[in-house]
Amino acid sequence: MITTTINELSTLQEISNFLETNSGLNISSEDINLKLSVQRRMKESNSESIDQYKSILQSDTNEFKKLYDLVSTTETYFFRDLRQFRALEKFLLPEIVNMKKKGTTRRPKVTIMSCACSTGEETYSIAMAVKRSGLESMADFEITGFDLNSFAIEKAKEGIYTPHSFRERKASIDEYFEVHGENRKNKMVRSDIKRMVSFHVGNLKHLEQLPCEFINADIIFLRNALIYFKKSARLEILANLRTRLDSNGALFLGVAEMCLPDHLNLQSTEWNSGFFFRPTNATHLVSKKSKVTTTTIKDILKLVVPEASTVSKELTTFEKLPDKKLTPVKVHKQVISSYDKALWHIERKLFDEAKAEIVSHLKNAPHDLQMLSLLAYLYTEQGSLSLAKKTCQDTIQIDSLTTAPHYILGLIEFKEKNYTDAIINFKKSIYCDEYFYLAQYYQGLTYQLQGKHDKAQKLFMNTLESIDYHCEHSNDNCEHYMGASFFGNTAHTIMTLCLDHLEDI
Ligand SMILES: C[S@@+](CC[C@H](N)C(=O)[O-])C[C@H]1O[C@@H](n2cnc3c(N)ncnc32)[C@H](O)[C@@H]1O
Predict the structure, then answer these.
(1) Of 87, 99, 315, 399, which residue is the least packed, with the fewest Cβ within 10 Å?
(2) CATH of 82-304, one of 3.40.1180.10, 3.20.10.10, 3.20.20.140, 3.40.50.150
(3) Would you say the C-alpha torsion 248, 251, 252, 255 has a positive or negative sign?
(4) Is the pTM of this model over 0.70?
């Protein structure tokens, strides 16, 4: 079924619509993940044709769950966006407990919902933040995670994690785990942390059907799930969650999900760069003592993605390339100085000097992929597009998994209005580096020019997510990336452009 007939394509479209109606997940009928998942479920359900499978899917809730488990993206890890967990532990939890204690002798209860929690890392991170806050002696905490992916929820309940779930860990959390299994690489969440949380299978689209109560929640986490939804579905879910948030509560969203509509009466707020949203009439917002600042989305951007002092002009066209450094491409330390010199010259349009630097370097290291990419970039800046293309192709021949040449080829095709080819090349460069936000941004822009607004929206969201990823990890990784010192500026500009486009769509 990978080569799809017209009939199969239209049935896949119906399946994709069915998934979207029932889960919110906006997955293209051409998505290879959808095709492979349907293929697998057809085999396992003994369906003789895709039409037969579609009928089973539409009539059997269990089949829907099985297909959903296969197609949904459950990527997550402990303390994802540490800044938000710090704000939770150090600011929000103490504030909420104190507020609830006022004027009553009863022990307060704090309700925290971790919506679309995937395999539970987020929910357990919340429990660990509660432990760290030391507030357990003063209040009862009810922490609930739910997700539509039943397989993920089983894993969450099990609480056993491989090193993958700890890959971006910045907080020292070893004390909350026990070593698990013979190879001693896996870890199991300590039983006292497990007892603090409960997990359920639940659908964001049908909160009223959750097996647990979800009203007046003090804290709601809903991060990195709505990015897979269309705007209308996102708004519907956010509006529904808003009615379940306590008037002094807080909502945590992923960076890519910050474009909240005004009518939800939520105010974006930050505490030491950890941002969250609170009802505009919340008591704390009128308290002069509060150390938090209420912010606009653009303010948040500045916090999340610091703007460099040398702010570049608005960048919307190919001529005003947003990134002079082809970031983020890994480099070998010993070539940085030569590379940086050449880059410095290119940025100042001193093309002869740049070329001399590059050529002299390539004499000793003819296969240096980064330098070859820079040469291609130099040619594009000079307007020698056929030379640029040839250099990209030569570089790809040496190593087809080099990110930059695919990206440059994409930009050239974009400039020449060959949008289909531009997209193919941007896709390839994203394949080489899944967090390459520039290619994601331009792919989105290309879709927008083609009038494919759904796809454009998805790409702009991915761009925001990737920028957030880079910003969050800049301390660890930036020095290994080309042009790291300019990174903040570029990312900030692209992020602003993305938000503008998303507002337009
Ligand atoms: C990328 S994970 C995010 C996990 C975690 N919140 C985080 O930020 O690390 C997205 C999760 O959203 C879940 N999800 C998507 N649509 C959902 C829905 N309609 N109801 C509940 N969960 C949903 C997926 O199953 C997946 O586990």
Answers:
(1) 399
(2) 3.40.50.150
(3) negative
(4) no
